[in-house]
Amino acid sequence: QTHEDVVGNPKTDEMAMNREDGYGTFLTTNQGLRVNDDQNQLKAGERGPSLLEDFIYREKMTHFDHERIPERVVHARGVAAHGYFQAYDDNANLSRAAFLQPGAVTPVFTRFSTVAGSRGSSDLARDVRGFAVKFYTEEGVYDLVGNNMPVFFIQDAIKFPDFVHAVKPEPHNEIPQAASAHDTFYDFISINPETTHMLLWVMSDRSLPRSLRMMEGFGVHTFRLVNAEGKARFVKFHWKPLLGTHSIAWEEAQQISGKDPDFHRRDLWNNIEGGNYPEWELGVQVVEEEDERKFDFDILDATKLIPEEQVPVIKLGKMVLNRNVDNYFAETEQVAFCLSHIVPGVDFSNDPLLQGRLFSYLDTQLKRLGGPNFHEIPINRSLAPIHNNQRDGHMRQTINKGNVAYGVNKLNHGYPQQAKASEGGFTSTYERVEGHKIRLRSKSFVDHYSQARLFWNSQTDVEKMHIVKALRFELSHVQHDEIRERTVLQLSQVAHDLASRVAEGLGMAVPSANGVQLNLAVPADGNVAHYQSGPV
Ligand code: HEM
């Protein structure tokens, strides 16, 4: 007997009023009119032209014509399932969040995705996987929007459009569609050294999960947890699959992509249907605020991880996915994850990638989901009640009563009232911030190779061979020699054996271990801007 059998799932129960299966009913128009024939148009004579009057035809066709919404600009291909998160009894008093209190059970909706491919692309592309979890907590929706790798390609969100334009199919002919080698991607990689660490993760077995059920997840950025006493600590979030982390080989991935591009989607669906529910433990690495600067990297730099040998992962609870969606579009496609969906007890850090993401998701969803009311779509609806003075907009469902729609009023006795922290109100962590207004990458973000080297050295011989073979495969598909050479030069900054093994496989000169001069379009610290802004 599962937890859901015992207590149900408040979120899926709440969505019940929107479910419909048409069983035992008559066919109707969208106005409820019973339809006697929706297979033949209304015509002038048996062989005559169609009539404009045919509202049944027009309604059916118009709805069809408008079925599609834009796919996500990234992470377009995904699969999702419902489940619950149960907090463990002891979470070291790290957070006041209701969903982390001992034993608390919270419904979740989790979407896994690839990043670069379109909605119809293969599940087995060599790519990062998205790992986004929506917690429907009693204090509002909390989204943990992570990936299956602990670091990212870039350090500052303002580079994201450049990065994604380099990753996506080339704009003139949309070749290649899969996230495998092409000149724009390696051009970007080779002149942006901050990508090196993540490149190695993507070239490793981590980018070819055997199953979504066997994949880790990471919040990537440093966040904060804040406890009831107001004590804030920095944390890195981890999801650890109870089935362990497993990958497949590139040769297998290519074959599966050809034969069954839905491999991961099918595997997740079948296992949930069969009662074989996948489980992950949520954990955090905790760094006291006073220890923020004790590492030889900056914890605000999303291209760095905190080694688990240095800071172990504390387990906070377990997620179980136990219910497939009823309707892919209504749930998986319309779900909107957003980093700024946050609850008291969790807070942000000043990571410039995180800060930029805080803007991007709502912005893109306003377009993708057609306006400001997408929080009313069943899958996005909060279980906690919503009261505010926002009104109107496309497709508004809520019927707000009364003549008052502004804050700080006396007509409605001041309602809805602002909530103090003691009343469950969200308060940002108190933090002293001071500095010059400046476009600049922090000097503490400059070391791009040490952790890439750490990753390379952490790999077994077989795993290293896979990385080398992946890079040879990828770079052999790059057309421009100078892009290949620049990429191998980057690799030589990580480890000579890595660069020389890749170079050998490509029939290129092996770069010398020392004294390599990188001819980068941007300085090695990745910072173009300080040439524009003047000295500081
Ligand atoms: C999806 C932007 C970095 C994880 C998206 C979407 C955008 C976006 C616009 C589409 C959202 C939608 O249409 O609903 C950005 C920007 C980034 C960034 C601007 C950096 C500056 C990251 C990082 C992670 C990540 C570092 C992981 C920690 C995801 C996931 C999704 C997503 C998992 C898919 C959510 C879903 O399943 O619907 N991102 N992203 N992104 N992003 Fe990012």
TrEMBL record:
Entry cofactors: heme
Domain called Catalase core: residue spans: 28-415
Highest taxon of source: Bacteria
Catalytic activity: 2 H2O2 = O2 + 2 H2O
Positions of transmembrane segments: none
Top EC class, one word: oxidoreductase
Enzyme Commission designation: 1.11.1.6
Iron found in the keyword field: yes
Keyword line: Heme, Hydrogen peroxide, Iron, Metal-binding, Oxidoreductase, Peroxidase
Function, as annotated: Decomposes hydrogen peroxide into water and oxygen; serves to protect cells from the toxic effects of hydrogen peroxide.
Family statement drawn from the similarity comment of this UniProt entry: Belongs to the catalase family. HPII subfamily.
Protein name in the entry: Catalase
Residues of the full protein shown: 9 to 544 of 729
